[in-house]
Task: structure prediction
Amino acid sequence: MLLEKSPQKIVGISLLKQDLKKLNLSDIIFKDCDFSGSDLSGAYLEGAELIGCKAYGSKLKYAHSDDAKFRNCNLAMTDWEGAHLSSSAFSGCKLTGANFRRSHTLGISFQECILVNAMLQNISFGNSELLRNDFSEADLAGADFSDTTFKECSLRGAWLRLARFRGADLRGCDLGGLTLADAIVLKGAVVSKAQAAELLRSIGVLVH
Result:
């Protein structure tokens, strides 16, 4: 383990498959650390910053992670069920298969993240700008995207039951795999002519 000048910055530690439940890690900066397979359930990560870290398959159930920042991390298959993630920020992270069920996510943000097959039910993304996020095949049931702008994002094959898109701008989003029947949840959203034509083609209507 290498401790840099500040005792609050930890670099390059490996904590694979460790029991770290309820550990207080608040306000610490972790760089290039590996928590893969560890159990951080109930841990305190408020204000912490993880940069280039790995936590593949880690448990973060009911973790206290308000105002935490995650940059360029591999967080695939992490379990955040019931976690407190208000005003937390994920950028450049791999979150494939991550579980955010019943987590507290007021003000959470994702930018340039891979969220394929992630479970993001009932999360509010309203009044935000989503940049280069891949939500392909993600479970977004009940999510709120009202007045959200999508830029270079993908909702290809996502589960959107009861999601809300009123006022959302989807012109910068891949809607492939959605049928017109699925697209009823897009009521009130802005789509391009090409996207509208693709949705119509899904039910056999040809647009010329």
Summary: The chain has two domains: 1-119, 131-208. Residues 1-5 have pLDDT under 50 and may be disordered.
